[in-house]
Amino acid sequence: MPLRIFAVVALLAAFGLLGLPAAFGLDFERLQHALASRFGTERLALLNDWQQMLVAGKSAGESDKLRRVNDFFNRRLAFDDDSSIWGQSDYWATPLEMIGQGRGDCEDFSIAKYYSLVQLGVPISKLRLVYVKALQNGPAGPLQQAHMVLAYYATPNADPLVLDNLNTEIRPASRRTDLSPIFSFNSAGLWLGTGNQSSKSNLSRWQDLLARARAEGFE
């Protein structure tokens, strides 16, 4: 189902402080065991391919890391909504859960890309998960739909690059006139729109996801 867009006051009330290490550590033996025990062995090859992509991209430049990660998830995993995958209206999947299902919604794509880029050494300060309104063509004409993308800032005031599962080409935000940002966040805080004024807060769903990911093998 489409993401719900909450009033800013309600969003601020729902946020709580949470920290995240400067880089994730991946225990792939634990990840393999967790994947096989929960989803079976069918997706172990996909997990291995993800690991190989991370290993191959470790020494690449940041622009190449963006491309590798964006292409991997957009090409290898299918889009589906939470009601179909999880039987819930809104569920934030860990990268392992997304790989185990072989599919995910826009939040899952963005979160998996975020984890992957941090693992590849991209600083958290350069990455934000962004809730947007996406202008799309519907049966009755253009409509705005809630959506999530991942933004990469080469510098704090740069025009961010957008990693998206709807438009798979990485483009500057200034060229994504179909997207209207509502708020963005990472482990350091919350921003309204895409501004640089931070509130040291995090979504409760984000906190829950990080706890589940640590239990799976993301340190």
How is this structure best described in words?
The chain has 219 residues and is α+β, with helices and mostly antiparallel strands. It has one domain (8-216): C8orf32 fold, CATH 3.10.620. It has eight helices and ten strands. The strands form three sheets. It has a six-stranded antiparallel beta sheet with strand order 7-6-5-4-8-9, covered by helices on one side. Strands 1-10 form a two-stranded antiparallel ribbon. It has a two-stranded parallel ribbon with strand order 2-3. Strand 8 (179-186) and strand 9 (189-192) form a beta hairpin. The longest helix has 15 residues, at 62-76. It is globular, with a radius of gyration of 17 Å. Mean pLDDT is 84; it is low at 1-23 and 197-202.
Write the layout of secondary structure elements.
Elements: H1 8-14, E1 15-16, H2 28-39, H3 44-57, H4 62-76, E2 78-79, H5 82-85, H6 95-101, E3 103-104, H7 106-119, E4 127-138, E5 141-152, E6 161-163, E7 171-172, E8 179-186, E9 189-192, E10 202-203, H8 204-216
Parallel strand pairs: 2-3
Antiparallel strand pairs: 1-10, 4-5, 4-8, 5-6, 6-7, 8-9
Helix pairs in contact: 2-6, 3-4, 4-7
CATH topology: C8orf32 fold
How many E-type strands? 10
| CATH architecture tag | Roll
How is the largest sheet built, in terms of strand order? 7-6-5-4-8-9
Q: pLDDT average, as an integer?
A: 84
| Outline type | globular
Taken as a percent bin, the fraction of beta residues is: 15-25%
Element-by-element helix/strand order: HEHHHEHHEHEEEEEEEH
Total domain count: 1
Using only CA atoms, what is the Rg? 17 Å
